[in-house]
Amino acid sequence: MELSTPIEKMHRLAPEQKSALTKLGLVTVRDLLFHFPVRYGNSAEVTYINTITEGADITIYGTVKKIKTGKAWQKKTPLSNAVIEDSTGKINATWFHQPYIAKLIQEGMMVKVHGKAKKYKDSWSFINPEIEPVRDVPLAIGDSLFSSDEVGVSEPVYRESNGVSSRWFYHTIQKIINSGLTEKIPDMIPAEILERYHLPSLSTALVWIHIPKTKNDALAARKRFAFQEVFLIQILNEQERQRNMATKGLVIEKSSEDLEKFTQHFPFTETAAQKRAIAQILSDFKSGYPMSRLLEGDVGSGKTAVAATTAYAAVTTRPKGQNFGTLQIAYMAPTEILAKQHFDSFIKYFSHFPVSIALITGSGCKKFPSKVMASWKTGNGATEISRTQLLKWVANGEISIVVGTHALIQKSVKFKNLAYVIIDEQHRFGTKQRKNLRRKDDGVVPHLLSMTATPIPRTLALTIFGSLDLTLLDEMPAGRKPIITKVITPAERTATYEAIRSQLQAGRQAYIICPRINEPDPDKEMAVIAKSVKAEAERLQKDIFPEFRIDILHSKMTPAQKEETMKSFEKHEIDILVATSVVEVGVNVPNATVILIEGAERFGLAQLHQLRGRVIRSNNQAYCYVFAESSGERTVERLHALVTAKNGFELAEFDLQQRGTGDLMGRKQWGISDLAMEAMKNLKMVEAARIEAQQLVISDPTLAKYPAIQNTLSSREAVHFE
Q1: Which pLDDT does position 677 carry in this prediction?
Q2: What's the CATH superfamily of 484-667?
Q3: pTM value?
């Protein structure tokens, strides 16, 4: 048996098992070894039914009192339904699309059930929980199995799929470990680093994480693999940084005095943070190396103004001693709504200057519906032109600033003198998309400014954006009033609607955010209870705000429909916009001063903060009302942080510590493993991994002395963030 041995060659697999393993991305023996437990089944995690907390992962032991099969959702979806009872109460359990569950368990059987419970009316229910028969209820329920390091850890629990259970993983991985294969795997972390941070070797850590004898064994193994994940990412970051230092960047020299010609037209006074950010970017422009900088700031802190000012510095500079004409700028945004907004903003910022600005997105426009939308600045406004003509002007260098979505990285879009790339909410783009836009031309790499309003904890920023220099916009414009945020109980709903009504009567506008687009089928109601955009808009128009104009916005609408709706909202032809989180990024309507968020516990704190930012676009007092479907203690604590946190940075740190590493801003959004996200709670670990990676790459840029690291990076799809 080797690490590269396919699983099906070491273990006979049924078709459903093979399908399940493929779904989990597990193909080889190595994949199995590094499929780590998500938790350990110790009895400290066991909960009595009468002590259930909504939203928490819980495990109960009980007796099956009833079990039956049936169909739901217009009698099309098969399901199993059971009633589980312990000494304190009963709980329902429903499995959709899993009628076989009723064949696996029987009435009177003792079972262990794990999942998240929700309260429907006056009773608790599990939806699609894990379930397995057991011989007896553990005697130690409620007592910590980890009270002493001499007490063993019970069976690890693995992420599973239909066809392969956690128990199958446990026994299969035990066979691999017992074969001695782990002893033959080269350790990618140098011995001196392991010794310095008291980390176990790779072979020891693999045993301890899968078959821990004590709590400390399991914790030490997880610490080692968490360090390893961050260490690998930091090596890639440092290699990227070294490559940048080895390339040429356009030297752009512009003094702060030169920029006053541009900033004097701003309708506001720059904050000290904005001036500091501009100065740092100008310093990077003069270095001779391509800038790689992340600009992080709360919604409304003025990132676009910084981008516009530095763009002005670039397009009005002719590099010394270099054969370049007018420099060009690419500004890429994740959505068409946001790209159009930035295009309009830049037209206003550059209204006093003869700078050509274009917009390219992926949808058709009125004048040329079969083409990618193409607009360009004419005077103080914009006009639609053919995409072919616009692309010729971009290729000839006649267009100085091109704003767009991912359409900018299409092969047909070619720049003559691309000097500066600005990417908004860069984590929403893939690595290849960002690289394609910042491609090297004549040996010169464009400067890069990434911007984000997503609150990012410092550890996450150091890891994900480790190859970028970090600039924080930690001030709000003068006169901007802090938003008043309130967590609303069901009893306060009517009073809240009246508060919103008073704002609307004063000429303001409001957003109402719902988690869903459509109302669920009545048969689904037990599975999903969340307000929907369409049904809520109808209810509000009919029963609550009949005197005001209400419309909807959601992701299933076409780009043209979205744009038309947003234009109507901007023109105040709509008083209340009922929407999904599609308005989370970039929507800018200064007259909107109220946002009401339904089902708030379904959103992360960072996302709630982004949504709230839609109504702090002016100096008018803004209000955010937060409704939760759950009144659980954990939910209330999280939402209370939204009220008390001074800024997005503080909120992000709270989210990291309280909500859990797997949930922070969506683990998939960052592409980082659970273990690496776990390390994000430990600033010292992240900083240590960063320092060690930097020293290693500086001393050996090609990693020639570290073949195990080379092999580790090449044997997996390593995550690489620019």
Answers
A1: 66
A2: P-loop containing nucleotide triphosphate hydrolases (3.40.50.300)
A3: 0.68
